[in-house]
Amino acid sequence: MKLRFTLCILLMGVFFPGAGSAQPEASSDRDELRSRVKRLIKRSTREGLIYHNLKAYLRPYDKHCTFVIGRQKKSDDHDVMQSFSQRKEFLKRRWRVKPTGHETLFFSDLEIRITDDDIEAELETRLHFFGGAKHEKTLFKIKAQGKKLRIVHARIWPTFETIGGATFDYGEHYWATTDDLAFTAILSTGSSWRKILDVSLAAHWHPLLHAYLRDLAKVRPRDPEVWKALSAVAYLIGDMKESRKASRRARRLDPNISLPAALR
Questions:
Q1: Where is 222: in which H helix or E strand?
Q2: CB 3.0 to 4.6 Å from 96: which of 35, 36, 261, 262, for a disulfide?
Q3: Dihedral, CA atoms, 237, 239, 242, 245, nearest 10 degrees?
Q4: Residues 6 or more apart in contact with residue 200 via CB below 8 angstroms
Q5: How far is 155 from 68, CA to CA, in rounded Å?
Q6: d(CA 111, CA 184)
Q7: pLDDT at 24
Q8: Residue ranges of domains in the chain, CATH in brackets
């Protein structure tokens, strides 16, 4: 009986040679896929943040990709959504300023979750530059299309920033504090529009601030600083047409007004 059992095992090995090797092959395929995802994301991110190479940065993104710029990983009312074309124009304007050569980029460990052809990857980047640093996280949703990997969704949020001696730790405490300051300023009848602008920018209330500045421009149509602020906030939410229009209006009212490169 024992001999017959051993013979059966040997015959299974002859006639079904792949039966015992499926699991290692599947595991190997997953490891290879993880490596490809890691290389894809890091290469793209490095090309963008270090070299401002827009074409190389956007190469792995699907043309229908949605970008969500938020305050944290969880969604809230202050999220900004940008289409692929809006994000492309946004970065094209941001990266008009050439890299200084002093930029250094660090990556955290990349967390990757794979379900069939759907992949989620979460990464924190730490960009250090002359005079400051900026850390942010991105949650990528990726589709495996045969041999190709396409990023179809990206949620981006800040985690830390230091510039000009000021430090911002973008955690729960930071958002709770800045939300309170923004609420207080908006509800106070004595708040100037500049005060509301400052606290709303600090809280990243960009969609609400955009609506406020559009109304303010109707009340103060001859104030170039209002149009400059509207241009900046329209840029932040991805409305490039309005941003350009507001910049031109600000310059007509004050030809000497100072505008950052992204708004020119």
A1: none
A2: 261
A3: 100
A4: 182, 185, 186, 206, 208, 209, 212
A5: 5
A6: 39
A7: 53
A8: 21-168 (3.10.450.50), 171-263 (1.25.40.10)
CA atoms of 47 and 60, how far apart (whole Å): 12
Do 234 and 242 touch, CB atoms closer than 8 A? yes
Distance CA 30, CA 37 (A): 11
Residue spans of beta strands (DSSP E) within 24-147: 61-69, 80-82, 104-107, 111-115, 118-129, 132-145
The answer to whether the CB of 155 falls within 8 A of the CB of 182 is no
> Average model confidence (pLDDT) for the chain?
91
Q: Which residue has the tokens 């710029």?
A: 69
Tokens at 97, concatenated:
């300023």
Q: Which two tokens stand for residue 74?
A: 């969880």
CB atoms within 10 A of CB 85: 11
| Sequence letter at residue 126 | R
pLDDT digits (tens, 9 = 90+) for 100-148: 999 999 999 899 999 988 999 999 999 999 999 999 999 999 999 888 9
SS3 20: coil
Question: For residues 148 and 59, is the Cβ–Cβ distance under 8 A?
Answer: no
CB atoms within 10 A of CB 216: 19
* Euclidean distance between CA atoms 179 and 152, whole angstroms: 31
pLDDT digits (tens, 9 = 90+) for 239-258: 999 999 999 999 999 999 99
User: Two tokens at 176?
Assistant: 């709770």
- Token code pair at residue 61: 């993104």
Give the dihedral sign, CA 203/212/261/156. positive
